[in-house]
Amino acid sequence: ALNGFVLVVTSEGLIFYSSHTIQDYLGFHQTDVMHQSVFELIHTEDQQEFRRNLHWALSPPHAPEGEPSAEGGKSLGSSAVAYKPDQLPPENSSFLERSFVCRFRCLLDNSSGFLALNLQGRLKFLHGQNKKSEDGSALPPQLALFAISTPLQPPSILQIRTKNMIFRTKHKLDFTPLACDAKGKIVLGYTEAELQVCGTGYQFVHAADMLYCAENHVRMMKTGESGLTVFRLLTKENRWKWVQANARLVYKNGKPEYIIVTQRPLVDEEGGEHLRKRSMHLPFTFATGEALLYKSAYPLPGFPDPFQSKGKASKSKKTFHSHRGCSQKNGVDPSSLLGAVMQQDKAVY
């Protein structure tokens, strides 16, 4: 219900807790940031200000000059002074209230890569940590910053509306849909059973966006995250819906197991703007087996001449559909990008 997220940061600068809504504002998943140094998320120019506000008297031990920001956060942990409660002001003291602004890294479509947040809250004792001092004696609870972080610039009505329609889908490694949350069913109109029926998830992607999505899919298999991808999805009403998506690999026992995609619907004008900015430097050709992302050993017998002469992907919709329905006959793997286009009904274009 908040226009923001809850953040609890220990005196050493570790994020003890963040509410899951951090993903709606910064794009980081709750589990990505918890127990990490908060200074890895904060703009270098604002780190000292954040450090100051973590300290009960606003005068933290000074971090050495020229130290990398992430290391600065860690060194602070080792040099943080443990205080006994009787050395500190009473917990209800207005002296421990905090309100300040910091720029945080933001993975969402934010031009500078940072989002200015207003942090409002207070320092309170963080109980139940059972920390030990160097001589082995138990340390008393230490102060931590409990704050509500809200964007400095209030969101527009449009942003509020689209934020409320962020949906998530789960896919196999070749992008075959496995599950979709309730909001996704509202936006796209499909049931989970309908999403799982045929082929890979690429038959729901607009032909002109397929290679762009595939390129980011390949990047995600290498790095664990696709980066922001803007493309069109086919809804059940046979309309194209622009979405902005970020896909992440989920690992089990050190091996990638499935993909989770967070998707935000866009208005058509926003989608068109992204399309104009998109650069097409494609890692593989469209018609041959190179475009098959997984199980690429599929035997591909000779292609009919029109494909051979095309080489790189043709943007013409006619070319895409002139060979519709002959995928099996020509030996095109239905789970390749070309096979996915051939499964689409050309009426949707």
Automatic annotation (TrEMBL):
Residues 58-83, 308-335 are annotated as: Disordered. This is AHR protein. It comes from Uria aalge. The gene is Ahr_1. Gene3D superfamilies: PAS domain. The keyword Nucleus applies. Keywords: Activator, DNA-binding, Nucleus, Transcription, Transcription regulation. GO terms for biological process: xenobiotic metabolic process. GO terms for molecular function: nuclear receptor activity; transcription cis-regulatory region binding. The keyword S-adenosyl-L-methionine does not apply. Residues 1-61 form the PAS domain. Signal peptide: none annotated. Transmembrane segments: none annotated. It is found in: Nucleus. Residues 312-326 have a biased composition (Basic residues).
